Amino acid sequence: MYSHFSTNNMAWFKREKKGISTLTEEKKEAPDGLWNKCPNCKKALHSADLEENKYVCQYCSYHLRVGSKEYFQVLFDDNQFTELFPNLTSGDPLNFTDSKPYTDRLVESMAKTGLKDAIRAAHGKIEGEDLVVACMDFNFIGGSMGSVVGEKIARSIDYSIKHKIPFLMISKSGGARMMEAAFSLMQMAKTSAKLALLSQAKIPYISLLTDPTTGGVTASYAMLGDINIAEPGSLIGFAGPRVIKETIKKDLPKGFQTAEFVLEHGFLDFIVDRRAMKAKLATFIKMMKN
């Protein structure tokens, strides 16, 4: 009986040479970064198509999070620009340590992202119009606002005033950088005061809020634009929904803290698709200049 079982039931172990027979050493892996997956609809997106579509999902129009490199590429004519104040780096005035020393965290973030801090600033042209852009990078310690972020924005505003060039701020941040404590919070007042000087000089300021814009950034320069615009679906708020719910002891409305909700309640002027952003910004600049 055992012998009968062996001969009649073990045949499925036999391997026949059918179908794909590529040798292991001949197999080719897809290059890293060739494909992305949309966080919203989960469909595969080819990197070249995604770049051509301004990093917006071609299927559901979800705006993927991108940094200063991509925004400069999308906005500046021929991706030509002069970076401003590129070598500013954070100190460690409080000798702060949480799970690791702040200095170690900075070094790791610089190595991982290739950035000096959570913001880059540049001067270039957008449809022939001069523009100074300061853009935050969420990949650098959550886009947190520390002393370098505040200083770069302040110097960019000074540059705009000196050269009489409109200023665009692209915000993408988790809020103030706790490792710098009061030094971080001081940047709220500092940047707001500089924007008041920009206004007195009658130079346009456009604020672009992207996903996410929260905390002290929302409570300062992000909401002070002559025109406040946002990308579709962006999270915009001060405190997180859970904190607010626990504070007011009520359920929050549907869509709370989305760009669409904020627009409906009067804190934004426009929501603009990234694919139309460059043309729209150029129109705003020409309109405000005149």
Characterise the protein shown here.
The chain is of the alpha/beta class and 290 residues long. The protein has ten helices and nine strands. Strands 3-4-5-6-7-8-9 form a seven-stranded mixed beta sheet, with helices on both faces. It has a two-stranded antiparallel sheet with strand order 1-2. β7, α7 and β8 form a beta-alpha-beta unit. Residues 24-31 have low confidence and may be disordered.
Question: What is the terminal separation in angstroms?
Answer: 97 Å
Low-confidence residue ranges: 24-31
Query: Pairing-aware structural class of the strands and helices?
Result: alpha/beta
Domain count: the total is 2
Spatial strand sequence of the major β-sheet:
3-4-5-6-7-8-9
Radius of gyration: 25 Å
* Counted beta strands: 9
Question: Helix amount, in percent?
Answer: 25-40%
> Mind telling me which CATH architecture of the largest domain this is?
Alpha-Beta Complex
Question: In DSSP terms, counting alpha (H) and pi (I) runs of 4 or more, how many helices?
Answer: 10
- Shape assignment: globular
CATH superfamily membership of the largest domain = 2-enoyl-CoA Hydratase, Chain A, domain 1
| Main sheet attributes: strand count, strand direction, barrel closure | 7 strands, mixed
Topology of helices and strands:
Blueprint: H1 2-9, E1 35-37, E2 44-46, H2 47-52, H3 68-75, E3 81-84, H4 102-113, E4 119-126, E5 129-136, H5 147-163, E6 167-173, H6 181-200, E7 205-213, H7 215-218, E8 227-230, H8 241-248, H9 259-264, E9 270-271, H10 277-289
Helix pairs in contact: 5-6
